[in-house]
Amino acid sequence: MIENSNVIELKNIETFYEGEKIPVIHDITFNIKNGEFVSIIGPNGAGKTTLLETINGLLHYTEGKGYVFGMEILKNKTEIRKEIGYVIQNFEIDPLSPFLCKDIVLSGRTGKIGAFKFTSKKDWDKVWYSMGLVGMIDFANRSVGKLSGGEFQKILIARALAQEPKLLLLDEPFSNLDFAARKQIETLLNRIHEKQVITIVMVSHDLSFVPNRCNRVIVLDRGRIIMDGKKQDILKSEMIHKIFNGNGKKK
Amino acid sequence: MIEFPLSLLTVSILGAVLAGFACSTMGTFVVRLNLASIGYLMSHAAFAGAAFGLMISIDPMIGAVIFSFGTAIILGPLAEKARLQSNVVIGFLFSFMIALAFIFLNYIPGQAASGTALRILWGSIFSVSNNDLLFLLLLSFILIIFIVVFYKELLAVMFNRKLAESSGVNTKLFYFAVLFFTGFAVSLSLQLVGGLLVFALIINPTSTAYQFLYDFKKIVIFSPIIGIVSCLVGFFLSLLTDFPIGASIVVISAAVFVFAIVVSPKRRKGNSKKQKLSIISKI
Ligand SMILES: Nc1ncnc2c1ncn2[C@@H]1O[C@H](COP(=O)(O)OP(=O)(O)OP(=O)(O)O)[C@@H](O)[C@H]1O
Ligand SMILES: [Mg+2]
Question: ipTM, 2 decimals?
Answer without folding.
Answer: 0.91
